[in-house]
C-alpha cells in the first residue's frame, strides 16, 4: 500500500517528491473519498468517447450496418410473431388477451433492448480474459467496466430496441386501460428501471466470467431467457419460478409487477399493488450488488500471461 | 474414407475440450426449455390436440428442440464462421491445394461436432425435461434408432445449407449478413419457434416443404412416432433428397467460386 499523507508530511520534501506531488494530491483525494464522483464522471466520459469511435467505424459501412440492424430487428420480431401465431389458435393465453401480452412484451423488450444496446458488450469479457487482451484495458487510466461496456459497441442493436418500441406502441393503442397519472408515469419509470435491472444482470454475468471464462452462455439464460420469460404473463409459469424471478433475481420488477399494476391485475404471489413502485429501489440494490461482484471479480483476475 | 473419419473424430474432440462452455450451454438450454414448456402448457391447456399433438407430445417437442438446437445448428455456429474467415483472409487458397475434397473435409468435421453436441448438449436437457414434465418418450428401441437416423440426415442438411452460406463469402467477402439471414431462416422454418404444424395455411405448407424442416420438425415427428412404415421412408426420402440437392448445389457453387478465387493480402 502507498504511504499515507501523514508519513509524507513528516519528512522534508525532496525534488523528486515535489515532482510527484500532483499525483500524491490525487491519491489524497482518493483516500478522502473524492474519487467516487470523479471516477464515475471519468468512466461515463470514456464510455461516450469509445462508443462514438465504434459508431463512426460502424457507419463507415452503411449498407452493412443497415443489413445487420434489420436482421437484429427481425430475429427479435420472431419472438412476437410466435406470440401472434399462438393467438391465431387461442383468444387468450392464461387469461390474457393479445394487447395485454403485447404490453408485457413491449415493456420487457424495450427495457432489455436499451440495456443490451448500452451494456450488452460486457459479455465479451470472457473472450478477452481467455486471449489475454483484457490486460490492455487494465493499463489504461480509465475504469475497466466503462471500457468493456463500450468495447465493440454494436449500434446494430438499435434493431432490437426498435422492435420492442414498435410492439409497445401497438400495445398502448390497442390495450383497454383506465389511464391515471400514476399509470402514465409508470411507463417511462418501468422501462428505465428494467434497463437498470438488466444492466445489473449484464455486469454480474461479466463478473462471473472472470472465473468461468467460457460461460457467456450462462449469462444468456438470464438475459435472453429473462426477457423471454417476462414476455408472457406470470400466470403461465409455476409458482416456484415466479418466486425465483421476484425474490432471488428480481426480474419481475422489469415488467410483470409494473405492467400488472397498469392492467389492474393481481400478482400471482399476492404482493400488494404498491410493490410495483419498488422497482427503482430494487434496481439500485441490484446495481450495488453487481458493482460489488464486478470489483471482486476484477481483483481476483490473474492474467493468462501468454 | 479413413482420412474423413479422422477429421470427424477431430471435430468431436475439438468441441469436447470446451467443458465449461458445454456445461453453460446445457444450463441455458434447460432454462429456455422450462420457459418455453410453460408457455406451451398454457397454449395446449386451452387447445388440447393443437397441431396434432397432445400435451405431453407438445412438451416433448419443446425439449427435443433444446436438445437438437446445437447439434443441428439451427441458429448456426460451427464451421461456417471459420470457413468465411478463411475465405476473407485468403487462407482458403491453401485448403484448395490440399489433396482432399473441400466439401467432404468440412462435412466430416461438422458431423463430428454435431455428434458431440448431441451427446454433450442434448442428453442432459432432455433428461431434465423428462424429470420435470410428463414427456412422450418412445418405448420401442426401433423408434430411437429411427430418430437417430433422422437427426443424422438433419445434420447433413444443416451442413449443406451452411456450406452454401459460407461459399457466399467468395462474392460478399463479409459473411455476416448471409450468416444472419441463414440463422433467421433456421430458427423460424426448422420449427424451433413453434411446431410447423401450427403455422397457418400456405405459410405452413411452404415451411413444411423447405429444407429447414429436416432440422427439427421431421426428427421430432419421427421421435413422436408420427412417421412409421412407408411414412418413415417418405420422411427419410424428404431429408435425403434435400441433403443431396443442397450438397450438389454446394459442389457446383464451389467450382464456380474457386475459379474466381482472389487471394487477398498476398
Description:
Chain B: Pfam families: ABC2_membrane_6. Chain B: This is ABC transporter permease. Chain B: Keywords: Membrane, Transmembrane, Transmembrane helix. Chain B: The chain crosses the membrane at residues 20-41, 61-79, 144-172, 184-203. The complex is a heterodimer of chains A (306) and B (266). Chain A is mainly α. Chain A has helices at residues 5-9, 15-19, 21-31, 35-59, 62-87, 98-119, 125-131, 134-138, 144-150, 158-174, 181-208, 216-230, 239-248, 256-262, 279-300. Chain B is mainly alpha-helical and 266 residues long. Chain B has one domain. The model of chain B has no long low-confidence stretch (mean pLDDT 92). Chains A and B meet through helix 5 and helix 12 of A and helix 2 and helix 9 of B.
| Largest binding interface between chains | A-B, 36 and 35 residues
Can you give the helix content of chain B as a percent range? over 70%
The count of domains of chain B is: 1
Question: Topology as H/E string of chain B?
Answer: HHHHHHHHHHHH
- Sketch the major β-sheet of chain A: none
First CA to last CA of chain A: what distance? 27 Å
End-to-end separation of chain B: 33 Å
Number of helices, counting only DSSP H or I runs of 4 residues or more of chain B: 12
Radius of gyration of chain A: 23 Å
The outline of chain B comes out as globular
Which regions of chain B contain 5 or more consecutive residues with pLDDT less than 50? none
CA-based shape of chain A:
globular
β-sheet strand percentage of chain B: under 5%
Give the mean pLDDT of chain B: 92
Largest sheet of chain B: none
Annotation, overall tally of beta strands of chain A: 0
Structural class of chain B: mainly alpha
Mean pLDDT over the residues of chain A: 86
What Rg of chain B, in angstroms, do the CA atoms define? 19 Å
Amino acid at each position: 500500500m502507498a504511504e499515507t499523507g501523514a508519513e509524507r508530511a513528516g519528512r522534508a520534501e525532496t525534488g523528486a517528491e515535489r515532482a510527484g506531488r500532483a499525483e500524491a494530491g490525487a491519491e489524497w483525494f482518493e483516500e478522502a473519498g473524492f474519487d467516487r464522483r470523479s471516477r464515475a464522471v471519468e468512466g461515463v466520459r470514456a464510455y461516450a468517447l469509445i462508443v462514438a469511435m465504434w459508431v463512426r467505424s460502424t457507419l463507415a459501412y452503411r449498407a452493412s450496418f443497415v443489413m445487420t440492424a434489420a436482421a437484429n430487428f427481425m430475429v427479435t420480431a420472431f419472438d412476437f410473431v410466435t406470440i401472434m401465431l399462438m393467438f391465431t389458435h387461442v383468444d387468450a393465453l392464461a387469461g390474457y388477451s393479445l394487447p395485454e401480452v403485447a404490453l408485457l412484451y413491449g415493456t420487457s423488450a424495450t427495457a432489455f433492448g436499451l440495456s443490451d444496446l448500452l451494456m450488452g458488450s460486457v459479455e465479451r469479457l470472457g473472450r478477452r480474459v481467455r486471449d489475454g487482451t483484457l490486460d490492455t484495458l487494465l493499463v489504461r487510466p480509465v475504469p475497466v467496466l466503462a471500457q468493456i461496456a463500450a468495447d465493440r459497441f454494436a449500434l446494430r442493436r438499435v434493431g432490437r430496441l426498435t422492435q420492442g418500441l414498435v410492439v409497445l406502441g401497438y400495445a398502448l393503442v390497442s390495450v383497454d386501460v383506465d389511464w391515471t397519472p400514476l399509470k402514465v408515469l409508470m411507463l417511462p419509470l418501468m422501462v428505465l428501471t428494467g434497463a437498470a435491472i438488466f444492466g445489473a444482470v449484464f455486469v454480474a454475468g461479466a463478473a462471473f466470467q472472470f472465473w468461468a471464462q467460457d460461460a457467456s452462455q450462462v449469462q444468456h439464460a438470464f438475459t435472453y431467457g429473462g426477457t423471454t420469460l417476462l414476455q408472457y404473463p406470470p400466470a403461465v409459469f409455476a409458482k416456484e419460478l415466479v418466486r425465483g424471478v421476484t425474490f432471488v433475481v428480481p426480474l419481475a420488477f422489469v415488467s410483470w409487477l409494473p405492467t400488472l399494476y397498469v392492467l389492474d391485475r393481481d400478482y400471482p404471489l399476492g404482493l400488494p399493488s404498491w410493490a410495483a413502485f419498488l422497482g427503482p429501489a430494487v434496481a439500485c440494490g441490484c446495481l450495488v450488488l453487481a458493482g460489488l461482484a464486478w470489483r471482486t471479480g476484477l481483483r481476483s483476475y490473474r492474467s493468462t500471461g501468454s | 474414407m479413413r482420412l474423413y473419419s479422422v477429421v470427424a473424430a477431430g471435430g468431436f474432440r475439438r468441441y469436447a475440450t470446451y467443458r465449461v462452455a458445454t456445461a453453460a450451454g446445457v444450463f441455458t438450454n434447460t432454462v429456455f426449455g422450462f420457459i418455453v414448456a410453460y408457455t406451451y402448457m398454457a397454449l395446449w391447456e386451452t387447445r388440447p390436440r393443437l397441431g396434432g399433438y397432445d400435451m405431453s407430445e407438445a412438451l416433448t417437442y419443446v425439449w427435443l428442440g433444446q436438445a437438437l438446437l446445437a447439434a443441428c445448428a439451427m441458429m448456426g455456429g460451427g464451421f461456417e464462421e471459420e470457413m468465411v474467415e478463411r475465405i476473407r483472409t485468403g487462407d482458403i487458397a491453401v485448403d484448395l491445394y490440399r489433396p482432399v475434397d473441400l466439401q467432404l473435409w468440412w462435412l466430416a468435421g461438422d458431423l463430428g461436432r454435431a455428434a458431440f453436441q448431441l451427446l454433450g448438449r442434448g442428453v442432459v436437457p432432455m433428461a431434465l425435461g423428462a424429470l420435470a414434465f410428463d414427456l412422450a418418450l418412445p418405448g420401442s428401441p426401433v423408434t430411437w434408432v429411427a430418430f437417430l437416423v433422422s437427426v443424422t440426415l438433419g445434420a447433413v442438411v444443416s451442413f449443406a445449407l451452411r456450406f452454401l452460406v459460407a461459399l457466399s463469402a467468395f462474392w460478399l467477402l463479409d459473411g455476416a449478413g448471409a450468416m444472419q439471414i441463414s440463422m433467421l431462416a433456421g430458427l423460424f422454418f426448422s420449427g424451433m419457434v413453434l411446431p410447423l404444424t401450427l403455422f397457418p395455411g400456405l405459410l405452413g405448407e411452404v415451411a413444411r416443404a423447405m429444407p429447414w424442416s429436416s432440422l427439427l420438425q421431421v426428427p421430432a415427428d419421427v421421435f413422436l412416432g408420427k412417421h412409421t412404415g412407408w411414412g418413415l421412408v417418405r420422411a427419410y426420402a424428404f431429408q435425403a433428397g434435400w441433403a443431396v440437392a443442397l450438397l450438389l448445389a454446394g459442389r457446383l457453387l464451389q467450382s464456380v467460386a474457386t475459379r474466381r478465387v482472389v487471394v487477398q493480402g498476398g
